[in-house]
Amino acid sequence: MPKVQFIDPKEVRKPGFIAFEKIPVNQYSKTIEDEKKKFTHDDFIRIYHDMVIIREFETMLNQIKIAGDYKGIAYNHPGPAHLGIGQEAAFVGMAYNLTVDDFIFGSHRSHGEILAKGLSAIHQLSEDQLMKIMTSFFGGSTLKVVEKEFKGGTKALAINFLIYGTLAEIFARENGFNKGLGGSMHAFFTPFGVYPNNAIVGGSGDIAVGGALYKKINNKKGIIVANIGDASSGCGPVWEGMMFASMDQYKKLWDEGHKGGLPIIFNFFNNQYGMGGQTSGETMGYEILARIGAGVNPDMMHSERVDGYNPLAVIDAFQRKKKIIEEKKGPVLLDTLTYRISGHSPSDASSYRSKEEIDAWLLCDSINTFGDDLIKARVANKAQLDQIKEEVTGLMMKTLKLTIDDTISPRLDLIKDPDAIGKMMFSNQSVEKMEDRKPDVLIPMEENPRVKSLKTKERYYIGKDGKPVSKTKLFQLRDGIFEAIIDRFYKDPTLVAWGEENRDWGGAFAVYRGLTEALPYHRLFNSPISEGAIVGTAIGYGMCGGRVIAEIMYCDFLGRSGDEVFNQLPKWQAMSGNVIKMPVVVRVSVGSKYGAQHSQDWSSLVAHIPGLKVCFPATPYDAKGLMNSALQGTDPVIFFESQRIYDIGEMFHESGVPEGYYEIPFGEPDIKRKGKDITILTIGSTLYTALKAAEILKQKYNMEAEIIDARSLSPFNYNLVIESIKKTGKVLLSSDACERGSFLNDIARNITELAFDYLDAPPVVVGSRNWITPAYEHEEFFFPQPEWLIDAIHEKIIPLKGHTVKNNFTMNEQLRRNKLGI
Ligand SMILES: Cc1ncc(C[n+]2csc(CCOP(=O)(O)OP(=O)(O)O)c2C)c(N)n1
Ligand SMILES: [Mg+2]
Hints:
By secondary structure, the chain is an alpha/beta fold. Magnesium ion is lined by residues 229-231, 271, 273-274.
C-alpha cells in the first residue's frame, strides 16, 4: 500500500541536483570481420536476404501505385501504400532477435516490420510449428493458394505464405491476414508475434503498453516492441504510454512475482520526417530523439540512438536492450535513425526535401552498403547477392499474380453474404474466464469486509416493515456493480482493473471499495492521469488475451481518450478479420453538481461509434446483471454509471437484487412502470424523472404512463418499445444528454419509421438544453425535469385538460433555439 511509502518532508525538501547520464549516440563501430564470431555465414546472408525481400516488396507496390505495373503485371491498387524503402536495415535489425513470444505493434508504415518479424519467426520456428500455424490459419485457405504447385521446403513455403498473406491483405482480399478488412496500414499476423499496426499515428504508443502489462501481469514469456515514427513522438498516446510504462509502482509496490519494470521497448523508427515536416530542426525540439527518454525516469529509459542504416548496429542494440528488459529494468527507448527514400506515399512529390539530400542517403543505402561489406569480408560474392535479388524478384512476381487473380484471391463476397462485415463487428462470445488458472487474490471472497457487509444489506428499497430502507442499510447501485466485479475477479485470473484512484481510494465513487483488500497490486492499480492510456492500455491488454476494466472518472474526460474510444477499442475485432477479441469494459461515471466540465452525459457520442456495446443501467438489479454480461462477453463495452443514483436502491425487481450470479442481456429495454396511455422511454437516471412525471400524469390528468428504461443504447431491440406504442399510440423520450445530436433522436427516427401507423403524434424528445451544464444551483433549468415532460406532452402530443405550461415547447421556440444553435 502506498501508505508504507512515507513521504518525509526532510528528504524531499533537501537541496540538490538531478544528474543525467550520457545517452549513447551511434556508438556501434564493429565491422563484419569483428562480427564473424557472433554471426555465421548463413546469418549474414539471411540479414541481406530479408532486407532485399522488404525492398522488393515495397518497390513492387511503388510501381503498382505510380505506374499500375510491376514487371509487366498490371494492377490498379486504389488504397494506401506507405512504403519503407530505405528503412530495411532498421526493420530487419529490430526483428532479428525477437521470438514469436515477442510482440511488435506498429504504425501505418509497417509492411517492412511485418515482413521482417515474419521472416525472423519463420527462421526460428520448426517446420512442424510452421505447418501447424499455416494449416490452421483461416482453415488453411491462405496456405492453399501458395501451396498449389509449390516445390520446396516448408520454410520457403512459409515465406511465400507470409508475402502472400500480407499482399492479399493490402489488396483487400479475403485470404489476407485480416480478411482484407485491415489493409495496408493495419495489417498484422499474431501467430508470428505481429500485433496491430495503426493508421492513427502514435496510436500504438499506449496500446503496446497494454501488451506489456498483459505479459507482466500474467507472467507470459516475451517482450513488447512499440514501433513508432519520429514525428509521432509528439503524440499524446505515446507520452501517456511512456508515463504508464514507467510508473514507480512496478518496481516499488508490486509483489515479488510481478516486481520490476515493464517489458517494453519504445522503438522510434526515426526517418527524420513526418509526411513533410522535418522533426529535428523543425517540428520537434529534442535535436536528437533519444533525448526524450532522459526525463522520464531515473534510468532515462536506457535511451540510445542507434544507426538504423547498419543492420548489425540495430541487431546489437536490440540484443542489449532485450537483456535489460529481461533483467526487469524496462522500459527502454531506442532512437533508430533511418531515412525513407520513398515518398511518404507514392504520390508524394518530395517538395519538402532536396535532391542532394536524397542522393546523399542513396549513396549510403543500407542494402548496397551491407552487400558491399559482405563481399569485402568474403562472406558472399556479387553473383550470389545478385542471385538473391533475382529470386526475390521472381517471388514477388509470382505472389503478385496470385494476389490479383480474382478467382484465386477473391474479396469477401458481400453480395452472397451482405452481413459478412456486420458479423465481424462483435465476437459475441460468452466466456467465463480468459484463461484457466487460479486467480491471484489476497483473501477468500467471504472474508472480504465489503462482501461481508453486503450480506447484511436490504436488497429491495422497501424493508420488511413496509418502510423505505435507510441509506446505510440499503444495497445500492454501486454495490450491484461491485458484486459483479468482485465475482469475476475470483473467476477470471486475467481480469485486472485500473484507472485513477482505483486502489486505496476505492475508485472515484466507492464502487471499488473493498477490492484493495482482495487483490494484489498487479490486478488493481492506480494509473497516471492519462485517460488516453487508461483506455489504450486496456485495449492492448484485451487484444493480447486478457480481460480488463478501465475506469474513466467522469464522462467529460472521455474526450481525453477520444482516439482510443472512437478509433481503437471499437475497430480492432473487425479490422483483424475476427482474429482478436476485445474483452474490455470501460466504466464511465456521469457526473452532476460539478458544472460544465464534470456533468455531461456523452452516451450519445459513443453510441454513434460502430463496434461498441453501450449500456446505461439505472437500477442496482440492472447494473449487476449488465456488468455480469459485460464481464462474461468478449466485446468492448462502455458502461455508463450515473453519479446521481450510485446510492439508489432496487425499486423494481420486487424480490430484490439476487445475491447469486445472473446476466441481463445487452440490447433489451425493460418496462419499469406499466401503463396504457403514453410510452415514456428513458436512458440512465432520467428514469426517476419520468417516474415523477408519471405520478403527475396519473394524479392530475388520469393518464397511465408506461415507462421503458432503455438500459442499453447499442445494441437495441425495438420490439418492446413498438409493442408499447401499439398500445399507447404516443411516445416521449428523455435523457440527460443535450438534446441536439442525442441518441434519443436516433431512437425517435427509428420509432417513426417502425411504428408510424400506430402513432397519434410524432415521437417527442426531451433532452437537456444545448448549453454548458450550469452550477448545481441552476441545474433545474438545464436537465429535464418532470414538469418539462408534462409540458412537452401537452404541447406536442396530447393537450392535457386544464394544464398550464411553464416551459416553452412550442414549434416557434424549437425553431428559434435551432436558429440560434442553443
Ligand atoms: C493522428 C494522426 N495524425 C495525422 C495523420 C496523418 N499522417 C499520416 S503519416 C504522418 C506522418 C507520420 O510521421 P512519423 O510518425 O515520423 O512516421 P513516418 O511516416 O515517418 O513513418 C501523418 C501526419 C495520421 N495518420 N494520424
Ligand atoms: Mg518519420
